[in-house]
Amino acid sequence: MRGAFGALVALALAGAAGAQTLPELPPAEIYVIGEQHDNPTHHKMQAALVTRIAPTAVVFEMLDADQAARITPGVTRDAATLGPLLDWAESGWPDIAYYAPIMAATDAPILGAAGPADDLSGYGLDAALPDDQQAAREALQAASHCGALPEEILPDFVARQRALDAQFADRTLAALDRYGAPVVLITGNGHARADWGVPAAIARVRPEVAVVTILQGEDGIVPPGGGDLVLDADAPARGDPCDAFR
Fold this sequence. Notes:
Layout: H1 5-15, E1 30-33, H2 40-53, E2 57-64, H3 65-69, H4 79-85, H5 96-104, E3 110-114, H6 131-144, H7 154-179, E4 183-186, H8 189-192, H9 198-205, E5 211-218, E6 229-233
Parallel strand pairs: 1-4, 1-5, 2-3, 2-4, 5-6
């Protein structure tokens, strides 16, 4: 899938027009759909893509297994129901109104990727990264935290990100094994990136699984890391994210 990346980016960005135009999707067993968490248009696109894909299951970075288990077949998948059911107000994620339409776009099981990890020994987390990649990852962590992190803890943040990528990959593969294809993972762009995120973790342990990666940018800026498809949307009005670190 990766070889078509350049052409697919150009197509998606040219036709996105506020991320309302749905692109054609290559066939896959797993679709990893990224987001900027606070961009409502990204979530609308995710809901539309889930409708088109008609997945057997949808895995959410934002849920753990206990929360997901509360979404039984009889539960109405709207914000008014899901908010209190999932204790969403205490979760730290953006408004449940962003995510409820994604869950409502399918009657397939909703699964959680968060929570305590299972055995991740097959994902190579103990192996050191190449020096240039380690440095790039540390620089990204520093930038995403507005330079507020002491340099000595940056490796810990990189290790945490690697572990989450492996965990999300593991939970998504478990969904594939249980329910069959296609499975969707809803996650942030940082985890969705093809070069070292969840798709790379899947490829490490199950290279035969066909994965399509969809990233979502803002104002024509392509998220880093690459993917099979990149969509664009206007950035919402937001304050300076670094204010929280000052």
